[in-house]
Amino acid sequence: MLEYCRNLVVGGLNVNINKQRCNLQIAPLSYPWQVVEGDGESWVILRCKCKLTLKEVMELHGATLEDFAWKVSLEQGENHLYQGKIALNIYYNSKSFFAIDKEFAESDEEEDLIRTSIINEESSKEVNFREETEYSSDFASIIVDKEELTKKEEEDFSSAEVWNVEIPWQAWLHGMGQDREPLVEKVHVAQVGLSSLLVEALIKLEKKQDLLKSSDDNEIIFKNTEELYFTIQEEKIAEIGGLHAVGSFFTTYFNSNKQLTLENLKKINLVFISDVTGGERFWVASHIIEEKNILNLGENLQVQPADFQCYKKKLKLILYDDHTVIWKAEYMIRAMFAENMRSMNIVQEEAPKTVETKEPVPRKRPGEKWLKKGRNNNSKTTTNKTLISIKLGI
Amino acid sequence: MLWPNEFPRSVNNINLTRDKEKKASLAGEGLDPSILKEYNITPQSSEEFKGGWLLKDQKKDLWVFKYSGDRNRLLIALEWQENLAKNKCSVLKMKRTKGDKLYLENNKEFFFVTEWISGQKFEVQQERHLLSCFKELGKIHKITENYSNVIIQNTRIDWTLIIQKKLKDLLQYHSFLRGKIKFTDFERFFMEHFDYFYNAGQEAVENMVLLQVDSARPHLLVNNFRSTDLLINDNKVVFTNLLKWSRGPKILDLVLLLNSYMPLLKWNSQAFKNILKTYKEETVLTKQDEQVLLALLRFPGRFWFYAYQYFVDFVEEKVLSEKFKKYIREYYWRDQCLNTVETWLWEG
């Protein structure tokens, strides 16, 4: 469960809005990718497992980055689709089951119990199965930071076996600002069974976002400082990867106090590293909140803003304790109107066009065809009429 | 029914040791004297022993056993044991009461008396102990084939169905775990090896069906090879407790005995072959029996048992994880051994 408490500062006044406990969902794990795309930031978690045949993993040594290639394959305005591939070398030691010189235990008592259980037809029908609440593990787990990934200490890994992993990936990077280069933030290598290995890679895509300085009348800017407290009860957090949000379903209306109110949904994604070993450690916890902001745009607005753009500047993202994260950021919301958007060449207005129409084909009068035969052939041209006026004397 | 695992103070030599400093009650603490009277026993000393009393009189050692289970089960066991003893099988000889009964009932408890013989503790690391065990078991099986018991013949256990139900349990556990995000170490071991063990179990059940395991006349089974219930006397294994008997194909006794002690020998295929040869010297083992034996040995009974203990009995996870790891390693040794033995059997 992720719960948060929010303090909102608007125009110098402290306004507590939406202070509530929220039940969060730990996002389901996904193989081979788990992607969270936010505004200005995207995270890609890549995962791969392998099981050794007839061997037991004895020791884990670490991982190195063999290759990390990427490209921007699609652009839609400020939104970019990144595609790439990551190649890792995982170093470990294993031993054949038949080479392990371990004594097996005496089994007579246990076999006797098993035989009795089978005969007594003990069964699991209609029984509530055990559910653990505390998780701990004896499996080895190593997290390699980005600085260590490119180091190749040959003497440490010379006697080790190698597992080569190549995983393709793809993610959108949305939002305003300049793209930073994608980075492999961390790699996690773990033993997850007697003979099984797991590798996870955490890739970050980010835009460099600054708060706007424009004071154009047509770009109404609303500034907001947000401080949120997140608590995750089910997991022990070792380290935070990142936090980002995506806003959508914007609605504006005048409330009973004639204040322009902006309502929207915002999905918050927290990428973090679990302290519990034995399995996957790169997790995502998400929550959707409802936001409500009062925009000081006056009472006489004739139409609502056509669109909104959000900018954020992270001020603080810290791990307070094993289960609590504090997030503080400055937000800027730019309300954009149609005229403003036109001047931004979002839609080019076309000059009014003159419509040319052709004159219709002159239509002959009824019987004209036959009448023309008995007359002067020069009647093609328009008829010359001679007006004769007769003055009558009285 | 609880089976105490205790030996008297002297573990290697199971003679009753007289503690001269301790005054032992002639009747034995908690033992009703009327029972001794019915058996015409006048012990010189007694001591509590293995859920009963070990009595010493002028001629021999006697073991008075207290039983709190089903009367019919007791009667079947004692009659069978008496028959085996008469046919010189390695079991303890029964002593009848003055009224020629095999047991006495007293306050809803049953008492019976057997002779007790001194001997050594059964040690599987000594190959001759293990070979003797199979040899004597072969003799018991041979005598038992001609031993008829109406109750046994009229009631059957459907072993194929029983074992198939264990596979169904495994599927339930697997289905439960598939809905989870986080796992304990034990659950990861289970998921990691589920396919392998489940397929082995499925194959075993299919072979049992094809070989019609349950259609044969049911056999009385010893069904108890705990080292605390075996002793070595004059280089022969003696089966001291037949009360856990069951019924079914005699192969089930071989399966239980092999599963109990072959892990300690790291499933050595040569030892396995010697065991089969020794057993076959005493009784017949058909080709079909051999196929059933291999099929049942491949069934991952312990995989099911640990999973049951984990999901249903809530045994401590760390303890089970360690056991499970050892079992997984042992199973690969077992597989290798059975493959070798199977080839050897096929080659005749």
- The run of helices and strands of chain B is HEEEHEEEEHHHHEEEEHHHHH
The radius of gyration computed from the alpha-carbon positions of chain B, rounded to a whole number of angstroms, is: 22 Å
Order of helices and strands of chain A: EEEEEEEEHEHHEEEEEEEEEEHH
Helix content of chain A: under 10%
* Oligomeric assembly: heterodimer
Rough shape of chain B?
globular
Second-tier CATH architecture of the largest domain in chain B: Alpha-Beta Complex
Low-confidence stretches of chain A: 1-20, 343-354, 374-384
User: Judging from the principal axes of the Cα atoms, what is the shape of chain A?
Assistant: elongated
CATH superfamily of the largest domain in chain B: Aminoglycoside phosphotransferase (APH), C-terminal lobe
Structural class of chain B: alpha+beta
CATH class of the largest domain in chain B: Alpha Beta
Question: DSSP strand (E) fraction of chain B?
Answer: 5-15%
In round numbers, the mean pLDDT of chain A is: 77
Could you give a short account of the major beta sheet of chain A? 6 strands, antiparallel
Q: How many domain modules of chain A?
A: 2
Largest binding interface between chains:
A-B, 47 and 55 residues
End-to-end distance of chain A: 117 Å
Total DSSP helices of chain A: 5
